[in-house]
Write a structure and sequence with these properties.
With about 350 residues, the protein is of the alpha+beta class. The protein is built from eight helices and 18 strands.
Length: about 350
């Protein structure tokens, strides 16, 4: 059964329609604006809902660029100097530049994801570099107030391009990480979120708290601090610190070995006296073939070593050899059976 036209999702205007809207903005703001031009514009606007949507978006972008950070607005798109007549070619070029910029800011990278076992590196519109780990998904939306990224699931490493007046905000698990030019890692799981700072500074706030303004000494910052006082749930991290939130537990700040935290960027999983049950869970993130520990007692055995992401079979063989366990494959599972017969020793993946 087909949905009615009234219930259909609104269609995003095409690039061609947006370009037409930009041209109309240029003519309406140019020196050749006449009654005929206005009449032609009204006919074009009434021709379709897509024309209305495109013009509304383009006009909003045209007006809104006054408030965009100057570092990201092309010089041509910032408007003419006072007293300068806007001719049609100049206005047309400016309008198209503004609309093109606005479309990239408002609709850039609506959804980016990786499959199980896949890593992906990409560069966002502002120059920020992002590395996505296995089974991760982000949504990106930039506007004149902030660069916003939602980490729906998984893990992402951000090297944030420096725009001091344009905050970079990552939301995950009921928290938001606010940065302006720094490098940090966010990992989001069902009942756990961890933020690890590599360099610079970030502020971690509850999701419903206002993002601090660029300058803490500015009048706007002072007003914001009075209207939205900082709470005990706010954290400022220093390089090397990791902030972890686990459901029904107090937040924890520690200093992990950064090489271990970022080992996935080199295709590795580094374990150091890690309980086998946790080690298997970490390896399972990278493969559709899942490790299963048959005996609960075996889950407490410790594993230390460097393993290749996705290579669950080699991991299982190394652990089985160390603890005299039995390895069997059952469909899409690798089962480690038996009770460990040795105390914890180092297990290496050759």
């Amino acid at each position: 059964m087909n949905d009615s036209v009234e219930n259909a999702a609104p269609e995003v205007p095409s690039a061609a329609t947006c370009a037409e809207a930009a041209a109309w903005i240029a003519r309406l703001h140019g020196e050749d604006r006449t009654a005929n031009v206005e009449a032609g514009f009204k006919r074009w606007l009434a021709a379709s809902a897509a024309h209305c949507a495109a013009f509304e978006m383009a006009n909003e972008i045209w007006v809104g660029t006054e408030y965009l950070p100057k570092s990201v607005v092309p010089a041509l798109a910032r408007g003419p100097k006072a007293g300068l007549v806007v001719t049609l070619p100049r206005a047309l070029a400016a309008a198209i530049a503004v609309v093109a910029l606005g479309i990239s800011l408002y609709f850039h990278d609506s959804g980016l994801a990786t499959r199980v076992g896949e890593q992906r590196n990409l560069t966002l519109q502002d120059g920020t570099r992002v590395s996505l780990n296995t089974a991760s998904r982000i949504h990106v939306r930039y506007d004149r107030l902030a660069r916003r990224v939602v980490l729906d699931e998984g893990e992402a490493y951000f090297e944030v391009a420096k725009h001091p007046d344009w905050p970079f905000v990552v939301s995950a698990g009921g928290r938001q990480v606010v940065a302006r030019g720094t490098a940090f890692l966010v990992r989001s799981e069902k009942q756990r979120i961890a933020v690890t700072l590599m360099e610079g500074k970030v502020i971690v706030l509850p999701a419903d708290e206002a993002v601090p303004p660029p300058s803490v000494n500015s009048p706007a910052a002072l007003a914001t601090s009075r209207e939205h006082p900082r709470t005990s749930d706010d954290f400022t991290l220093s390089p090397g610190q990791r902030l972890t939130f686990v459901t029904h537990q107090l937040p924890k700040v520690d200093r992990p070995e950064l090489d271990r935290v970022t080992a996935w960027q080199h295709g590795q999983v580094i374990l150091d006296h890690t309980a086998l049950v946790d080690a298997a869970a970490e390896m399972n993130r990278y493969s559709d073939v899942k490790l299963k520990i048959e005996e609960p007692a075996a889950g407490h055995a410790e594993v230390t070593g460097i393993f290749r992401v996705g290579d669950s079979e080699s991991f299982a063989r190394a652990v089985a050899e160390t603890y005299h366990l039995k390895v069997t494959t059952q469909g899409d599972q690798i089962v480690l059976a038996g009770v460990p017969s040795m105390p914890a020793v180092k297990a290496n993946n050759k």
